[in-house]
Amino acid sequence: MSSLFAPFSQKSVTLRNRVAMSPMCMYSCEGMDGVATAWHPAHYGSRAAGGCGLVMLEATAVTPGGVISPQDLGIWSDDHIPGLRAIAESIQYVGAAAAIQIAHAGRKSGTYRPWSPVRGYVPDWPHPRLAPAAIPFREDTPVPQAMTATDRSAMITAWQQAARRAQEAGFDVLELHSAHGYLLHQFLSPLSHPEPEGGDRFLFHRELVRAVREEWPAEKPLWMRLSVTDWVEGGWTPDDSARLVQELAPLGLDLVDCSSGGTVMNANIPVGPGYQVHLARDLRAATGIATGAVGSITEPAQAEAIVADGNADIVFLGRQLLREPYWALRAAKELGAEVPWPDQYAWSVGNPG
User: Fold this and answer.
1) Is 182 annotated in the active site?
2) Model pLDDT, residue 112
3) Which of 82, 79, 65, 83 is nearest to 28 (CA)?
4) d(CA 186, CA 183)
5) Catalytic residue, candidates 27, 93, 121, 182
6) Residue 74 DSSP symbol
């Protein structure tokens, strides 16, 4: 029996298999309003039809100034709920769990989308680029505005209200984005936050998880994408990640989606097939929390081994699911598992002609 295609249950949610679509920005809102377009349910629903056990929406901004690009999805207003609900329903209709990642880009907010003829940061950005400290990402990038106590309190409220909206939109799983050099990661790394409030580097995360759990139901999983290491001397480390998780798990954190890097440009990241799997394995062993592995996972046998060997509980695929939306159907066939065809296809696919 395939380990990758075994169900995974957590609280009230059961995934039909352990293949998850990683959150990836689509930069496809038509304006700066964060409202979903027809693209979004078509895109995310197709990966659910393609057999994934869970499909996660892109980094969805908790404030207007928190978007990575002006075309990103938003969840800072109740006006976003109908569009987000339509996406969740498009995923759930064909048997996958619907997840949403909520985020704030911090000092990395307000950049042009990747295929724009102009690259870099949008000039005259109408929102302050907030960060724990007034330290830019690079010397040639905007200096962010250091957050005050009032800013931090307002930010916690914004994440809390985003969690409420995610619940009202009908999502099964909520993920907090604390990776890749965005705001939550900025609070953790000594490279972006050298002098944390009261010397407590975990303070903001504890307050955030408590606040989010006041709105996100206890019976639903709460996950976090975490850069487990900065890959830089003097930066955030796997040991730091383990200590953070040990503080957050009792507050209601259920799984860590283990990524890495993004705080600085000069990180020496050993990119290659499955290069972050050991981070998920080691964090799982150190803390007992469920983990997800992500990063250059492309082949069914590779993903199967990750789960079968106890390295992670689920496997996130990113770019591979852009290349091959029905990857999970192929993987199930190759691994000898029952292929999770949608009902609309299943009656026919075995028939010749």
Assistant:
1) yes
2) 96
3) 83
4) 5
5) 182
6) B
Report the distance separating Cα 136 and Cα 188, nearest Å.
15
Q: Are 219 and 11 in contact (CB under 8 A)?
A: yes
- CA dist list (Å): 258 to 119, 173, 336: 28, 16, 28
Cβ distance 29 to 73 under 8 Å? yes
Of 252, 71, 288, nearest to 176 by C-alpha is 252
Global pTM?
0.97
Q: For residues 178 and 185, what is the distance between their CA atoms, to the nearest angstrom? A: 5
Q: What is the C-alpha separation between 318 and 218, in angstroms, rounded?
A: 28
Full set of structural domains in the chain with CATH: 8-349 (3.20.20.70)
pLDDT range class, residue 350, cuts 50, 70, 90: low
351: pLDDT strictly greater than 80: no
C-alpha distances in Å from residue 192, one per residue of 103, 148, 202: 17, 16, 14
257 pairs with which residues across the strands?
225, 292
Q: For the chain, what's the residue count? A: 353
pLDDT digit string (tens) for 40-69? Answer: 999 999 999 999 999 999 999 999 999 999
